[in-house]
Amino acid sequence: MKLNIDIATPSKQEWLDAVMEDFDSFLQDHLDCERKASAMAMSFVAKYPDRTEIIPELIETAIEELEHFQQVYDLMQSKGIQLTHSIGEDLYVKALIKLCHSGRQERFLDRLLVASVVETRGAERFRLVSEAQKEPELHRFYKILWASEAKHGHLFVKLALNYFTEEEVYPRLEWWIERESEVIDQLEIRAALH
Ligand SMILES: [Fe+2]
Ligand SMILES: [Fe+2]
């Protein structure tokens, strides 16, 4: 199933270098991203309880993200890395959400497509992290996550197609892929997922 076309701009080498130089900080942020991904999937259930066709897959996704959270947490525990008390604002997701339409139907489509582009970027970055990892365990771990987030990138487009036509979904998805590239390009490079 390939529903999301790929990201428009690949992540920079500088980003990967920053992550590999301070992998502990990256793990802290990654952990938080998994928690937020789980919450985001459940927020669709809370905001759109009448969209019953997609609720089972949203719950399943939320559980998967929480499992990722647990796996990253276990990994951090094994490395003796503590949870941080507060994590910085997610400027990336915030900038994307700001671009969403405000009408109920349009916003529903936009939120699904934002979820898709965020997951697709996550997949691209986990692939880069996996390939750069020297530790076999971490290499494997990020490879599994890469596949899982790529699947989520497609899933949110599939969910949108339950309620919108291909003519409504795909041009808007392309628009979002362009915006996502602009937003990620403007972010300060740090040892974090975004
Ligand atoms: Fe995840
Ligand atoms: Fe995901």
Structural class: mainly alpha
Number of helices: 7
What percent of the residues sit in helical stretches (DSSP H or I)? over 70%
What order do the SSEs take from the amino end to the carboxyl end, as H and E? HHHHHHH
Q: How does the major sheet shape up? A: none
Determine Rg (CA atoms, Å).
16 Å
Strand content: under 5%
Assembly level: single chain
Which molecules are bound in this entry?
fe (ii) ion
In round numbers, the mean pLDDT is: 95
Global morphology: globular
Weakly predicted, low-confidence segments: none
Q: Could you tell me how far the N terminus lies from the C terminus, measured between alpha carbons in angstroms?
A: 26 Å
For the structure shown, list the relevant keywords.
194 residues; mainly alpha; 73% helix; globular; binds fe (ii) ion
Report on this structure.
It is a single chain. With 194 residues, the protein is an all-alpha fold. The protein has seven helices and no strands. The longest helix has 29 residues. The protein is globular, with a radius of gyration of 16 Å. The site of one fe (ii) ion has 6 residues, from helix 2, helix 3 and helix 6.
